[in-house]
Design goal:
With 103 residues, the protein is of the alpha+beta class. It has two helices and five strands. The chain has a three-stranded antiparallel beta sheet with strand order 3-5-4, with helices on one face. The structure holds zinc ion. The site of zinc ion (ZN) has 8 residues, from loops.
């Protein structure tokens, strides 16, 4: 069985790129909103390169996702069964956990 390591790397890189964008958005949101419970706008962290879908979630909820290195937030419908496991669901977002690195 062949493992497409390069595609996997690209997929994870994309998620990490959007995580970096979201970290910046988070900092801006906290700065402007003043307190962390406010809903903030983040971008979908799914592995579709072209996806820039925005979603709202609380800064605290985002922090909780970030605290787990394998977890990402995506908009509903952008989760990838088999690659990611859904660990949380809300009206506007889905929390997924990468299965690729789970051994
Ligand atoms: Zn997406």
């Amino acid at each position: 069985m062949e493992i497409d390591g390069r595609r996997d790397d690209k997929r994870v890189q994309n998620e990490l790129l959007f995580r970096a964008v979201n970290e910046k958005l988070r900092a801006l949101n906290v700065e402007f909103e003043g307190f962390a419970n406010e809903l903030a706008v983040f971008v979908c962290e799914c592995n579709r390169i072209e996806c820039m879908t925005q979603m709202e979630l609380g800064v605290e909820a985002f922090d909780a996702v970030c605290a787990q290195p394998l977890r990402f937030v995506v908009v509903p419908g952008h989760e990838m069964p088999g690659v990611e496991q859904v660990v949380g669901r809300n009206g506007t977002y889905v929390v997924v956990e990468e299965l690729a690195y789970v051994h």
